[in-house]
Design goal:
The chain is α/β, with parallel strands linked by helices and 292 residues long. It contains 10 helices and 12 strands. The chain has a 5-stranded mixed β-sheet, with helices on both faces. Strands 9-8-10-7-11 form a 5-stranded mixed β-sheet.
Length: 292
């Protein structure tokens, strides 16, 4: 077949405008040029697209069917052009991104929406897990980069960059005895089981002689909701409304806690493409807004 995308474009425009003259005005062409292009398309397809016995350009039954096909072909052609422009500008065709499940959802969801808008042709793969798991995704080359809470030193095969920090606090279930104390002190925490984040080479501050450990902040939060103990959690995890019972953050003059650091990591020697440079800078901005 010898039809062209330009002929398809004129066919679609004519169908949408309802007449050859209106389509010609939209396309900036002479009416005769549009009419001739569509006649050649009909001859090449061996199909009558418009019923010319009527005053306006009325689609035939076959024309209605082929209009859908023509629109899809034009959409694919535009996607091809966009992908080529993106690649020629130095953007990556694919990106595998691993995200710590406990990172603030507000920052992460905004980042993903903006990636979709800024890089519409990017093939994005998202991997989620604990801080340890997302690091393993990068090490195993399942992910190009990862954002996670800092859980100790990294092997020499990684490079890293600090991108922000998230506030943390002491959380209990709403039925816990500590929830009834206006100003909690360390001596109060000692009386009850503490649920602690477990990670190699990381020593979370421990107040209680009775502890349980887990490698997931959300698993710890679920246990807090089940009245199994109290825990130090990132504030965004502790205030999530996904638990069977809401958690309550307790306060006291001796409970000031440092923020938990967030870093981006990648394999040593891997060169950042332009896409990753933007992702890193934008996520850092979003986390700083949370800190503010």
């Amino acid at each position: 077949m010898n039809w062209t995308l330009e002929q398809l474009r004129q066919f679609v425009t004519t169908a949408e405008c309802g007449s050859f003259s209106a389509a010609a005005r939209v396309l900036g062409k002479a009416q005769s040029a549009v009419s001739t292009a569509i006649s050649l398309l009909e001859a090449d397809l061996n199909i009558e697209l418009f019923d010319r016995s009527r005053r306006n350009a009325q689609l035939t039954d076959a024309g209605h069917v082929l209009l859908l096909e023509a629109r899809e072909l034009l959409r694919q052609a535009e996607a091809l052009d966009n992908r080529a422009r993106s690649l020629s500008a130095g953007n990556e065709a694919r990106l595998a991104l691993a995200l710590d499940e406990a990172l603030p959802y507000a920052a992460t969801s905004t980042l993903l929406r903006e990636i979709a808008s800024r890089f519409p042709d990017l093939q994005l793969t998202l991997l989620n897990g604990t801080a340890t798991e997302v690091a393993a995704y990068v090490e195993d080359e399942r992910a190009d980069i990862a954002f996670h809470f800092v859980r100790g030193a990294l092997p020499s095969s990684f490079d890293q960059k600090h991108v922000g920090a998230v506030p943390q606090g002491v959380f209990v279930s709403i039925d816990h005895p500590l929830a009834k104390i206006d100003s909690v002190q360390r001596k109060d925490l000692i009386k009850y089981r503490q649920l602690v984040m477990h990670a190699e080479d990381v020593h979370q501050e421990i107040f209680s002689p009775r502890i349980w450990r887990s490698d997931s902040f959300y698993s710890i939060a679920e246990m807090v909701a089940d009245d199994l103990g109290w825990a130090i959690l990132p504030v965004n995890v502790g205030t999530d409304d996904a638990y069977d019972k809401p958690l309550r953050q307790v306060h006291g003059p001796t409970l000031t806690l440092p923020r938990v650091s967030v870093r981006m990591l990648w394999r040593q020697g891997w060169r950042w493409p332009g896409t990753v440079q933007w992702v890193q800078a934008r996520y850092e901005e979003l986390l700083s807004q949370i800190q503010a």
